[in-house]
Amino acid sequence: MTAQHSSARRAASVHLLKVQLEGTKPPVWRQLVVPSDIALGSLHDVIQVAFGWDDAHLHAFEDRSGGRYAPPGDFGVPAFDEDEAALADILPRVGDRMDYTYDFGDDWLHRIAVEEVRPAQEGEGKRAVCTGGRRAMPAAEDLGGVWGLAELLQRYEDGERPRPVVVRDGVEEWVEYDGLHDEVLAGLCEEGFDPAAFDPAEVTQALAGVRLRRVAGTRRGRRGVPAGMYRCECGEVHPLPGGAGPLADAGQGDEVGREDEEGVLSDLLGVADVRLPAVRLPGEAELARAVREVAAFMAAVRLGHWCGGRGARTASAEGRSRETGGRELTPKGLLRPKLARQAVEEAELWRIDPEEWGHAEVRAARLAKIRSAGDMEVLDLPWEWALNCGFVEVDGARAHAGADLPDEDDDAALLTAWQGAVAGAAAELSVALPLPAGPFGGLPQLRALADEAPPLVFLMLLTAYGLPEGEWLDVADYLTDGLEGLPEGPARVLVSAFLAEQYEETAGVLELFGAAEREGGESGEGSDLTLLLDGGGPDPLPAGRFRLTPLGRSGLHTLLVRVGIPAPVIGSLTEADARELLASLPSYGSEADAAKEVTDWLAARSAADAAVQVVDACAGTEPADALRRLEAPRVLAAVLETDAAGRAKQVLHKAAVSTVTGCSHAAASMLRRIGEPAEGEADAVNTRPSA
Question: Which of the 8 DSSP states describes residue 258?
Fold first, then answer.
């Protein structure tokens, strides 16, 4: 979602949305036309009216990249202000989707999909309009979600009529029913409710009273992310140290600081003063071969293709063509047992544990005894990964192939999907310390301690990233050194325990991805906190050795590049600009590698162009500018060696007398090195008085 929209363009366009209440059978949905620049907070008002809600509970929107939008202050977790987010910025194109959840007890989930974006017609866009839909909605507040609604409608269709009880209090009397369901059911009976009836005109009339709020100008480019979080291009939103957890943890949340500031990993590394060395990465074909050996990941890919099935296209009652196929799910969102058994066989999910599941006859006998997909261990991990990676998408009661599902035979697509998945997992697991479950996790002092602890596990990954090929990192030594300055006592013990848990989870997931290897040592994970604080129990810090595989180094490199952290790869700077080249050269551990990089860079451009780019890259007065100027003579010397026509020298002489800070200094300095001082400098040297 990178499209940008000016306020003028948005004011002249409308979005045609289909909003479907998930989990209802037959499905309940509304087709709505709204102005493209409507605020999500206003779209909330529209949906409330369109489905007959009372706006009596909390709500939130969530886009496909993990961004949440809600009223300010409703949650103690990161969320954008829904009144500052325009629909066109979040869902700019046909096919874009997001979720809207109302009432986090009943969890009424509405799936919003863009069916059309078009110029507004005469008089259109001033108010929301309902142009279609299916099924009427009864008063469903507090019924227990879609399951409670289904039970209510079934009772109504069965002709059940609840009997009221007359309650008397002195001279007053009134009628009461046995619970809310009976009360609502009685109302449906009294009005002669027809669940199949739906009139878009009635909804449009009700929507006439909804005042639409607009968002002026383009905001997507500057909205950033919620405080305490960062967003990388893999589509994920991840917590920084001190950030709050996901929406499900709202009960734990403290107020998040750093309002309106975009938190990124580059800020974190800047504070830690981490400089990454240039590394070697295998070629695409070799990395793709390594991905194909990651059993769990490939099982998730095969499961995605299996869920795609072979659907046909049929015409819906509304005349639109729709895709059938996919795989049927239970109301709990699991594959039907028969289909789950087929998936294990046809998608070869058993390959993730061939010792346990590899024998066909034994496998068939075991699967036949299992009555729920939730009990099939061999399915659990591929299903979880397929959903998290976007290889499988759930639409209503069916699972389909996801938009991010790669072709198994396409090296580039397969590698890109793997890199995006492991980069998101590494950031999510290793940046913010996990708090323990149970009563300890709710202690404010414990949360503050976790927030202030250094991100040692993530920094450990960066150290492993820069190690020479095949070398190991001693985990306990590294984490112990990182805790230097933290005095002995309960705080140090707790931080050590948190780090041990974080390391075990991070390293374990990276191993499953084929991104890391471990040798030896067991941590004190799971140790009782009370026992640790009393001085008992084993040392919580993990022992053993850790290293990234070449595949893991490529995944971490993907994350670093996506959040703007310089992470040079040997042999990759040919097409880079001169600023990146000069900034990267100090990270090369070998002079021969650095010289080769410069030679390859020069081969892609003329001597004159190279001289111009290098001199321009020396401009500025910041420390980073000065560091680039330190590397400029190395590159300019190589430029002059290839400058048969003398044009690069002309560039230097012209730049040396310019008034651009940094450029003139670098050019004049290089000319002095080769014995050709800039114009005016030679006269100054010749007329200088002798000592």
Answer: S
Q: What is the DSSP string of 298-363?
A: HHHHHHHHHHHTT--EEE-TTS-EEE--SEEB-TTS-B-HHHHHHHHHHTTGGGGSHHHH--HHHH
Could you tell me which residues are beta bridge partners of residue 237?
Answer: 231
| In the block, residue with structure tokens 């600081």 | 257
Distance CA 224, CA 264 (A): 10
Amino acid at 197: A
Q: What is the pLDDT of residue 78?
A: 67
Segments in 39-95 forming alpha helices (H): 40-51, 87-90
Looking at residue 677, the DSSP 8-state letter turns out to be P
3-class DSSP string for 554-623: HHHHHHHHHCCCCCCECCCCCCCCHHHHHHHHHHCCCHHHHHHHHHHHHHCCCHHHHHHHHHHCCCCCCH
Give per-residue pLDDT as tens, 135-170: 999 988 888 888 889 888 888 988 888 888 777 777
Coil, helix or strand at residue 445: helix
Reported pTM: 0.53
Rounded to whole angstroms, the Cα distance separating 28 from 195 reads 10
> Any bridge partners for residue 70, and if so which?
81
Write down the pLDDT at residue 220: 38
* CA–CA gap between residue 468 and residue 228 (Å, rounded): 33
Q: Is the dihedral of CA 495, 498, 499, 500 positive or negative?
A: positive
Q: How far apart are alpha carbons 107 and 26 in whole angstroms?
A: 18
Q: What is the DSSP string of 651-676?
A: HHHHHHTS--TTHHHHHHHHHHHTT-
Please give the distance of CA 50 from its chain centroid, rounded to a whole number.
Answer: 31
- Closest of 483, 481, 510, 485 to residue 498, by C-alpha: 483
Q: Which two tokens stand for residue 62?
A: 């969530």
Spans of the chain below 50 pLDDT: 1-11, 218-264, 271, 311-323, 523-527, 531, 533-534, 682-691
